[in-house]
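TASK: fixed-backbone design
INPUT:
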């Protein structure tokens, strides 16, 4: 894939972009094999990849420049802004939205936040697109509510220009730090969640709930988890760190009991809504800390699915699972280093199957799915 910004040295986010995709996959597989070298792996499944460009469903744009000439993209370490509205990782549908948002910023009087001067209001624009109907969610991250009424007044023009914006909200982030969003979300549309669908499973995307940024590969990841789980004798499963319920809802059957745990209430609301749409009755999603929930239980189910953040599941949960000895553990990870460390802490388990999913082309990062079975 060619990138003029990379060639000019203006953006190095895709550090591996000059390497052929086959070379990138080989390097990632070699890394994963090295991380799991001390373990016997029953089956190394073929790595899964997707498109090498236009694959992202989300843009997180730092807003800089002036209100008349805003720049949408990122800030270099020295504070220099870089406009990324032509980035090839975004689908073409994003470019038209960026083109309208720039004049809208001026129309709404949303002065870009200046980090050095600690002045201005508009910090970030967060744009997400659904593959279901190409509907979009747009979030304005503001320093305060000072320009909120101006934004509301200008909003009809934006909606007329971009009817694909189904969900629009304002997030208030008052802290002078590189934090993407704050706790307060203000809705500007009646609709508050973006409809999505992977493999016939309805999913919902809300502000402040995690959702995979590469839908093509994410769909394959969920389908693989479903196929692996449904080949197992599972009657009751936990989906820990469940997010909006992607893994649990794909794997569950009407004859199965599903318990999903996630710390974010917004994500739990999405998962519950999806379960209702699927007609699943023996399902419970709760907004709790996954480790605390698990370790307070006196027994474990047939299967525990974990999809933790980059830090992994940690010593406490590993110790609990080792003691409770569920027959199967399905571990989905975006950080194979912490996954390998966790697997070493899970005593009494062997790796039945491993598969790499290239969720992040042109970088060293990848997703991995690992099925562990009790020995």
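OUTPUT:
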């Amino acid at each position: 894939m060619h990138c003029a910004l990379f060639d000019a040295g203006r953006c190095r986010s895709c550090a591996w972009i000059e390497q052929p995709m086959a070379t990138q996959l080989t390097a990632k597989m070699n890394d994963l094999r090295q991380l799991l070298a001390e373990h016997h792996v029953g089956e190394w499944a073929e790595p899964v990849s997707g498109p090498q460009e236009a694959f992202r469903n989300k843009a997180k744009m730092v807003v800089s420049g002036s209100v008349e000439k805003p720049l949408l993209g990122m800030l270099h370490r020295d504070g220099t802004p870089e406009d990324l509205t032509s980035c090839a990782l975004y689908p073409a549908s994003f470019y038209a939205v960026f083109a309208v948002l720039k004049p809208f910023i001026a129309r709404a009087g949303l002065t870009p936040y200046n980090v050095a001067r600690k002045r201005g209001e508009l910090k970030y624009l967060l744009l997400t697109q659904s593959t279901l109907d190409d509907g979009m969610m747009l979030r304005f991250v503001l320093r305060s509510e000072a320009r909120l009424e101006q934004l509301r007044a200008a909003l009809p023009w934006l909606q007329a220009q971009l009817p694909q914006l189904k969900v629009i909200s304002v997030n208030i982030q008052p802290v002078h730090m590189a934090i993407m969003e704050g706790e307060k979300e203000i809705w500007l549309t009646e609709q508050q969640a973006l409809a999505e669908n992977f493999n016939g499973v309805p999913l919902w995307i809300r502000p402040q709930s995690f959702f995979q940024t590469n839908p093509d590969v994410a769909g394959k990841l969920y389908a693989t988890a479903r196929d692996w789980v449904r080949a197992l004798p599972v009657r009751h499963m936990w989906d820990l760190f469940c997010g909006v319920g992607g893994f649990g809802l794909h794997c569950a059957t009407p004859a199965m009991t599903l318990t999903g745990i996630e710390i974010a209430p917004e994500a739990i609301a999405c998962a519950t809504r999806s379960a209702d749409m699927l007609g699943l009755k023996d399902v419970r999603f709760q907004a709790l800390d996954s480790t605390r929930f698990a370790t307070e239980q006196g027994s474990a189910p047939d299967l525990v699915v974990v999809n933790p953040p980059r830090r992994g599941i940690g010593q406490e949960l590993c110790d609990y699972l080792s003691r409770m000895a569920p027959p199967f553990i399905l571990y989905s990870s975006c950080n194979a280093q912490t996954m390998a460390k966790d697997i070493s802490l899970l005593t009494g388990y062997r790796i039945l199957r491993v598969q790499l999913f290239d969720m992040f082309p042109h970088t060293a990062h990848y997703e991995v799915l690992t099925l562990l079975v009790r020995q």
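COMMENT: The CA atoms of residues 15 and 168 lie 33 Å apart.
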